[in-house]
Protein 1
Amino acid sequence: MDAWIELARGPFFRIALSLMVLGLGYRLAVTISHIATAWYRAGDRRLPLSDITEATMRWIFPVRLLRTRPAYSAASFLFHLGVVLVPLFLIGHVSLLQGLLPAAWPVLPPLVADVFTVVALSALLVLLVGRVSSRTARVLSRTQDVVLLLVLFATLFFGFLGSHPTVSPVASRTMLLLHILLGDLVLVLAPTTKIAHCVLYPLTQLLFQLGWHFPAASGRHVAQALAKEDEPV
Amino acid sequence: MAIECSYYLEPIDTTDLAQRFLKAFAAILSHSNYAMVLDAACTVTSRCGRCTSTCPVYQASNDPRDIPCMRSELLLKIYRRYFTPGGALRSRFGIPWELDESYLNTMAEEYYRCTACRRCKLECPMGIDHGLMTHLGRWALAEVGIVPKALVVATREQLEGATRNTSAIPKAALVDTCEFLEEDCVDEHGLKIEFPLDKEGAEYVFFPAVSDYLLEPDTLTGNAAVMSATGGSWTIGTGAYDGINYGLFYSDRMLDRIVSMEADEVRRLSAQKILIGECGHASRSAKYFLRTFCGADEAPEVVNFMEYTLEAWKGGRLSLRKGAITERTTYHDPCNIARSGWIVEQPREILRHICADFVDMTPNGRENYCCGGGGGTVSIDEIREFRTKVGGAVKAEQIRRTGAELVVAPCANCKKQLREVCEDHGLDQVRVVGLHDLVLLAMDPPEHMLAGKDNDVDENPAEE
């Protein structure tokens, strides 16, 4: 078991992390390149930057969303809080990244990490139940929309049990192994699933606003490409 | 509520329709910025369903087809399959999917169930603009001839017809209408106004929705009264006098050609700016797309008439009586000028002054609800039941809750739609008017506008 754990938190983790960093880096670079190209081609480069910034910031602290779908909004926020803070600042994770992170990297006190984990798990349950119980959500959901929630739930759950042997019904080392393997899976899936929004989010409001800034000659070029320049309306 | 949304098309060639659609789509993606939008949407869409809580069509229909991100998925599916390496691989090694005519028919209906009000964008955490997806989907469909006949026929007349406007109003009729309105204003209001035609070197060239000349005499009279009262320098160009731009609803190629027509007319008359009448999409087309297609530095500045009137009133050049309008009045925000935040407070400042009983709808402003006829759907008469019973259902309830007798809707399309909404929802006491209809009634005219004064020109000196 220990050998498997060392494999999972050693080479597997390093490969998964590399794939995640390279993959997300590629996504980010491509998106920035697309934005730069689109802005350069745009006939009107004047953008409502204050609107874009305000919209981007509004969704980091989505207080207004409590007006429209309060349960979903609260669950989503608490889930994101836990799933961002615990992986980045849990002492066990920080020790895995020794040498890669700055020396003064903050760590969460164990009790605080536990609270965030339990809250995130509860929020994940709410989101999962919402996904499968609502007719609208069932119509909307793709495979990844349900599977990712299940994988994240299992990762957090096994991680919590692995670090709390007294409450784990199964050997905590087994829980730890499952946690690490599932965590590695999440890292690998990040660039190719909607998890990529973790790096793209700061750019999406800008990108979709820029989508309305067409190249000046786009209509004429499309007409030429389709040999419709002289075609009547 | 299962009301279908079927509209008339002109005859189209259905040979290899799917293949020709893909060719057109490829041309559009190559020569535009839309590929960036589709690529990002494929990656970041979380299918959270938040858009369902704001879409007026979905809120009324509860039909999964009307969920904004499901509608966008119609286009994203094509993009992934035919324009991404992953899609090509999946089609070879997974379950293949091929675009066919039936899928295009589905798109044809669903993209015109959408009013392109862009309310969904406000609620999407990623800011995905499903109205932009509708805009793109409609353009791609239009390139293979799938576009409501009502929109094409009007645009054809505007770009290629003898009259160069969507209502086929000949120049002679325009001149007659302007003269009639001038005379009628003297008879009805005792006020002298002028509609200057083809005046060179004016500050503004006026572009209302041309249908105002047929259907909204009070709005136009109010417009001219404001210009007469303030000594505004304006003109109507008989070379092009229609601000309507259906290109915004179905084709960037047409959008370009129509705004270019407006810019040409301003140049012909050596004018400086464009003054847009009470029309939401005409305002947005001119303000945001003249700069795109006619040069950001060369395009004339665009002013909405409500901006002009507010500035004139606040600057003391226009006098309006406080509380002149006694009926309970509410204001409908046209999506095309409110969603961006461009025109939200300006009309309200005027209305709070001239109305004794002004009440706002909730929500309003940038978060307004669409009238239900947006995106050009109001011009498609055959889908009236869908527009009013589904698209306009939320708006009907908003109006009902205000208890208003007057609904000010500074948009030609919204006016038509709201009148039909009120009729079909039993809101018989409601009248839909333009802002300048009320401005005209509340105006304290300067001396020089009063008819029957000594400064009148004697039209028949020979009779004395």
Protein 2
Amino acid sequence: MIAELVIGGLASGSLYALIGIAIVLVLQATDVPNFAQGEMAMFATFVAFSLLTTYKLSWWIVLPATLAFAALQGVVVQQVVIRPLLGAPIINAVIATLGLNMALHSVAGMIWGNQTNVFASPVGELPVFKLFGVNVSPDSALTIVISVAMVILFTLVLRHTRAGIALRAASQNQQVAKLMGISVNRSFALAWAMGSMAGVVAGLLVAPILFLDVNMMGALLIKGFAGAVLGGLSSLGGVFVGGLLLGVVENLMGAYVSGSFGEALSFLLIIVVLIVAPAGIFGRVKSQKF
Amino acid sequence: MATRSHPHSAAARASPLRTQLLVAALAAGVAATALFGGGYFVYVLNLTGIFGLVAIGLTLLIGFSGQISLGHAGFFSIGAYASALLAQRLGLPFWLAIPLAGVLATVIGALIALPALRLKNLYLAIATLGFGIVTQKMIFEWRALTGGGAGLQVPPPTLFGLSLADGARMTWVIAAALAAGTWGAVRLARGRTGRALAMLRDSEAAAGCLGIHVARYKVVAFAVSAFYTAVAGGLYANLVRYINPESFNVGMSIMFLAMIVIGGMGSIGGALLGAAFYVIVPETLRGFKDAPGLIFGLALMLVVIALPGGLASLFRRRARAAA
């Protein structure tokens, strides 16, 4: 029983973690907490849905097409909405992304309507299997495996590719990065593209488990932020663990403490954690110049 | 902060006579509407006044002290429910129930501010977001007291045996509360507290060096802001007389923030303009489900990118050109 709850928690937690990672990729590079991440992912997931159902394309075409769309979406948002705000106080960018969130939500409602759609899972036909005596659904397994793979992939990109190293340099010191011949603007665009891609992967994973409609990412975005804050925002690994922790705690509290208070309890927990450790569990406080 | 405009520059620039004339004209307009105006217009005016109070409270917090809140729907719902329950269960008159609800929210606001002292920016945003969610959930689940998801009927407010549910009588109450709230906010902003808060917003370290008690002023800002928002919530409950936790969600907290950004952060006029925008846009676009969200979203992006002073700065620019 408890093992199943933990597995379920890990599955939903890895979704939170993916959204959290999408947010932190952008946050670390550009200092902007992207509150539009949820609806950007929702929008791209709907694009995948249209490709799958209206145009009847196979997953092998839809997946790369959707990832490309997500990357493009990230770059467009960065260039059009965020770039003009470079140098302005961060709260302006926060407000702009909140606005983008609302606008995308409405536009998606206009294009795809407000009804709930069924999004077929790519592993829907596989049976539930047993792992060490615990029932695991293929959807949960896929979610966990893919999110771990994404964390490793992004960490490798950031550590070992030219573009990734340039991105880290640009996020540490824009002036010096420019002097080293790095295009800061292109690096930030890359961060947004990566964030957007991580987001749509979360969207594609959650749509078959829950449902597909314009509201699907609202709660997930908040959980993603909460998990990221819990983990401390400073490393992808920490954020990943924070997301998983939130998912597991939420599932266990929902089962053992109170079904209806599960969500509220996890937020209480986050508030308590923030009081004790204001920069999250694995976070390092960035020194601030005044 | 978002605007970096000086909080009371507009008021300071306008001559006292002009300000007085403007206030008199506004008061006359409200009075005329309350006496002769028809139902729908009065309804929109009432809501604008109520959300104007919220906007002023939030501006005091975000525009002056530089702390962000994504949980103000929580204070609004506490005000609405506390005032409704005080009236319903204890039979208190509304003019006692609403301030008491405000006091309750002030205490809660101060308690929230204590952990918030250690948090900044995104962490504070998430903590306040959590507060809003927890509050909404508690109202949903505490069915014995709040009626849960079925909502709560609020007894019609009366004054000297006169039912305020009739016609435009609530408008007087709301106008009086708004006037008192505006007066209080202006006093606060121009006085010692306002200057301390503005200093705090620009640099906490500098404020601390000048002997400003950073922690105390942060708590004060949170508490005052909670009071304004809860009083507005109480007025709202007494105006619509049916409240449901459904509407007091995260979206509402974000809309509150949108309201003061679009109106113009850090000025009372901007707060009122933002409240008017918040009420009128969805009302005029009633038929189109997704249109208000699109307009709010685009307006938010446009304001921060192209018009950092919000709607209020449009008027200010015109006034400067005329002068």
Protein 3
Amino acid sequence: MNRRDFLSFAGSAIALSVIPMDLSAIDFRKSKPDVWTAHTIDDATKALYNVKDVAVSDQIKLTVPKINSSGGAVPVKFSTTLDAKTIALFQDANPESAVAVYEVNKYDMKKYEAKIKMGTSGTIMVLVETTDGKIYMTKTTTEVAAGGCEG
Amino acid sequence: MAKSKITAIKVKIKNDIATAKMVFSHPMMTYNQAKTKTGNSDDANFITHITANVGEEVVFDVSTSQFFSKNPIFKFQFKCDSFKIGRKLMGREIDNGVVIDASKKGDLLTITATDRKGNTYKKSVELASRKKKR
């Protein structure tokens, strides 16, 4: 699917420059609702990128502590040198798998940090959709001493 | 409960790359947490979309979920060589009442975030650097 089709599929979620408040491009929560209700990484991957069995790429880096004392704030650092169009962050330690979908722009250095909730120990995966339509990933596991969904 | 907001945006500029850190004050309440707390999972509220722009240029865009931590912090980097970078005043200068002329101020980095209940949060910070050569 080329970018024009992809953008027109997103439809009303696309920003109009006449409305200064709404400068977002694709709101994946609206354009791909099934991603956010998927319970497994495989289902979320299928819903977002329509693929399964994604190849690993060493051009995606993902850093997470081996052990976390609390699952409420697991620090995740990830970056990629791939020519990325979108980047997804998934895990299998919560009721649903999708944490975030980043849409890359021409200024973006594709290097991010954030803290996420992990209800249990588990796997965190970063997937990258490249501009030529291929999907790659890297993943790591992390341990959580106490679950994170109690807030 | 404190009102949700973008608490702070900090930007560091080095070698034409800006590293931005944004801190939110937001409960990021999951459906499960809402169910436990109020009995109604529809009371869940969490940030669902964040965009950062300089003028009309988008420099960061993410669709997010209930699985970011409470009072979440996000960090990202973007190339800023095509934007106007102002000069950050030193503490001593600020104490002495030095003021940068408006025409020399840097472009604004604006963060716009929306949550599940439709609340919008917006905050801007000037792109500025202490160094003469940014």
